[in-house]
Amino acid sequence: MVIEFLGVPGAGKTYLTNSLIDYLKKEINSSRFILITRKDIENKKRVNYKSKCLKHISFFIILIRIMDINILTLLFKILSTKDSIFVKKRNLIYFIYTLLNYNIINQIKKENSDKNCVFILDEGLAHISSIFFSEKDGVGDIMSYFKRINSIKGIKYRDHKKLYIFVDGTVEKNFERMSKRKQGFPMSWKKLDEVEKTNLLKEYVLKYELKKNYITNIANEDNVVIDNTNFLTNYDSYFLKVKGLL
Questions:
Q1: Which InterPro entries match (predicted)?
Q2: Mapped to the 3 state alphabet, what secondary structure does 222-233 carry?
Q3: I need a labelling partner for 242 at 20 to 30 A (CA). Which of 14, 15, 27, 101 fits?
Q4: Tens of pLDDT, residues 165-199
Q5: For the chain, which residues make up each domain, given as ranges?
Q6: Which residues lie below 8 Å from residue 40, measured CB to CB, with a gap of 6+?
Q7: What is the pTM of this model?
């Protein structure tokens, strides 16, 4: 199973990812299940490729191997936006590396075929779909994105059992959290003033709601919705639902 968290910046995805991992380590049978995080996937990359240069070359070869019309269409969509060159480059790298994570996921799953692998991602292909549509485009572009992702044979996204965890919040609370957290706001937001950051966050919320509506009401995928408007001392009631869907 692949568990993907979805939420706007400042919603608490990383915090809840780590909390869920701690909960499941205590609650599930380690002889039957193996938990793998995005950090584990990154570590797997480092083991596979000793040098950074070799890693980039290997990633390029893998990308060429899995390349198809669906990936090309999505890459072109990023390049054809009105975003700055910096944003286009960032989104291209973000999308490609997320794709390649699923190549590692398939590798880990094959190496542990005797166990139920549970991959817990604070950011996955569902989360980054925001790159490919605006809040004005509606459900049509989201459906098109997931159709293409599911059709990429090289990453086998369609073949994985998936659970989507939505992290609800408010613009005001998420803004407050980002302003107080150690890493601050996303790098691409650094030069924006407070009003511009707030407006951008509102756009993210609208996109998030569109994704949530599509996945829960149209695609009817397994999902859990966490109200994280205020941080809770205990999320066990939500995590129990996740455990029941494994």
A1: P-loop_NTPase
A2: CEEEEECCCCCC
A3: 101
A4: 999 999 999 999 999 888 888 887 888 899 999 99
A5: 2-245
A6: 108
A7: 0.91
